[in-house]
Specification:
The complex is a heterodimer of chains A (273) and B (286).
Chain A: H1 2-7, E1 18-29, E2 32-43, E3 47-51, H2 58-66, E4 73-78, E5 81-82, E6 90-93, H3 105-115, H4 120-133, H5 149-162, E7 167-171, H6 179-196, E8 199-203, H7 207-213, E9 216-220, E10 225-232, H8 244-270
Helix pairs in contact in A: 3-4, 3-5, 4-5, 7-8
Chain B: H1 3-46, H2 58-69, H3 79-110, H4 112-125, H5 134-141, H6 145-169, H7 173-180, H8 186-224, H9 230-236, H10 243-271, H11 273-277
Helix pairs in contact in B: 2-10, 3-4, 3-6, 3-8, 3-9, 5-6, 6-8, 7-8, 8-9, 8-10, 9-10
The chains are: A alpha/beta (273), B mainly alpha (286).
The structure holds adenosine-5'-triphosphate (ATP) and magnesium ion (MG).
Amino acid sequence: MLANLATTPFPRMANAKPKIVADKVRMSFGRVNAIEDVTCTIGEQEFVSIIGPSGCGKSTFLYLIAGFEKSSGGTISVNGTTVTRPGPDRGVVFQEFVLFPWRTVLRNITLGLEIQKVPRREAEERARKWIRLTGLSGFEDAYPATLSGGMKQRVAIARALTYEPEVLLLDEPFGALDVQTKNYMIRDLQNLWIEANKTIVMVTHSVEEAVLMADRVLVFGARPSSIVADVRIDLPHPRTVDDRRLREYQAEVTAVLSAEVDRSMSLERAHPA
Amino acid sequence: MTPDVAEGSALLKERVTFALFDRAARTVKFLLPIAALLLVWEGAVRAGLAESNILPAPSMVIARAIELLDVTNPAGGMLLTHIATSLYRALSAFAFAVLVAIPLGFLLGLSGTVYRWVSPVISLLLPLPAVAWTPILLVAFGQGDVTIITVCFLGAVFPVLYSTIQGVRSVSRQSVWVVRSMGANFGDIFVRVMLPATLPALMSGLKLGMAHAWRTLVAAEMLAALSSGLGYMIFAARSYMDVPTMFVGIVCLAVIGMLIEHFLFVPLENATTRKWEGAIHVGGRR
Ligand SMILES: Nc1ncnc2c1ncn2[C@@H]1O[C@H](COP(=O)(O)OP(=O)(O)OP(=O)(O)O)[C@@H](O)[C@H]1O
Ligand SMILES: [Mg+2]
């Protein structure tokens, strides 16, 4: 069963129409070959999780979808159009938050709407909803320097959600949160996704998170990476952590991932960069 | 007035009083060591430990300062003119430097190729004391304001330029990506990211630039001033062995330098970078 999974490049396709299509994507930075060959299709309104060993090119793949960097080969298209540059249809939450220290929490969050020339009052109105949902109420006028890591991360999430992109690209969005806050955020993100017709691509290090939230889990292999497994999580939403079948999926993904992490570590040790 | 409001205003009053008290306390803390130094100095001169025609006592310096400030005195009374001339020269040189260095710094910082060509030249000019140019400028322009202001300009322009370039180059790719993914055009990127992100580096560049202009000024005035300026006053006083006047000049240079920092840059920082840095600086604020 596991071996079968790992060698099947395309298991069950999403029944929705394709939103993001990556075709033989390669990416190298000088002599570092980060992504070897990634081909996948992410359907409209699908929630896809990407998991893989550290340094295998997950962030890089998100940046390629976002249009920040040019791939060294292959193409990525969103809505049938080849990606050449970033655009407000794709919102990104960065692994490192990237807040603007000279803007208050509220102004960081309204930035997207400000750039899109939405009147200030309306922008604040829309931001407040996400400020409430991310538990940042009362911190609207604080500057990022005074926030904890977890709060910064929530500002970054609220900032991307407020201008309502169709596609959300999340790079380890819960990495700096405590379990409690994380659970709230996961629930809200799930609700948002169920309500708001978003396509979500989320990079994570936690198999539990991936399996709990996503329709599909893409496992990236060790660098130079490609997709080594594409696991469809065939369970209705919203899911609960204590579901037995969820734990089975978790074991399945963990097995593939551990093998890749082992391979990645032994490669690193044999040929240190 | 409801009790609540009364209580609130009492609280506010208390806070204002506290703020005033805090400020006074800080001023005293700042002045106390200086007062102590002056007392020791005065005592040492009076006790004959120091030669008063080389190291005049503070009281003698103050007496001379009063003479020099007296505008009705035809022989003296020039101090304010000297100060005004020096300030005019230093500030206009600084203003020119800022007007040239900031736009140029953005240009050089934003273009990788231009930066690679220009940065070695800047690294060479940055540590060069600007006063070294004075003789050349004297040959070109003769004595007077043009030479002095140009020398000060050369002293101020490189720190500001260098800091601007470093500030622009330190802006992370990701912060530009954030706004690009929101649909920002080049103008948005410049105004909302590049400019504010450069501000902290720029601010230290401005401070350094002004300090360099002020330092360079004294030497330039000693070499190139015709009739006024604090540097000129100090240098001219040597012909009469007028040491107290020299001290008046030195004290003026130190105090004015400090006041410029305090009244020009501290408010500027409070309105910008200091506000964002928030809690980090609470303990370290002067
Ligand atoms: N701008 C860059 N220049 C050079 N090398 C880069 C650059 N960006 C990424 N890399 C390299 O590409 C590889 C993949 O990086 P990436 O950040 O995508 O990994 P990741 O899967 O997100 O890792 P992590 O899980 O630790 O965040 C790494 O080896 C990294 O060193
Ligand atoms: Mg990453």
